[in-house]
Amino acid sequence: MSTAVNHEPETPGSGATNDTLVSVEGIKVHFPIKRGVILDRTVGHVYAVDGVDLAVRRGETYGLVGESGCGKSTLGRAVLRLSEPTAGRVVFDGTDLSSLKGEGLRRMRRRMQMVFQDPMSSLDPRQSVESILVEGLRAHDLDKGREETGKRLRSLLSAVGLPNTSLRKYPHEFSGGQRQRIGIARALAVEPDLIIADEPVSALDVSVQAQVVNLLEDLQEEFGLTYLVIAHDLAVVRHISDRVGVMYLGGLVEEATSDDLYAEPLHPYTKALLSAIPVPDPLVEDRRERILLTGDLPSPANPPKGCRFHTRCPWKQETRCDTERPEMREVLPGHKVACHWAEDIRANRIQPHAVEAVLVEEDGISPDVPLVGPASVTEAMNP
Ligand SMILES: Nc1ncnc2c1ncn2[C@@H]1O[C@H](COP(=O)(O)OP(=O)(O)OP(=O)(O)O)[C@@H](O)[C@H]1O
Ligand code: SF4
Ligand SMILES: [Mg+2]
Question: 339 alpha carbon to ligand 3 midpoint, in Å?
Answer without folding.
Answer: 25
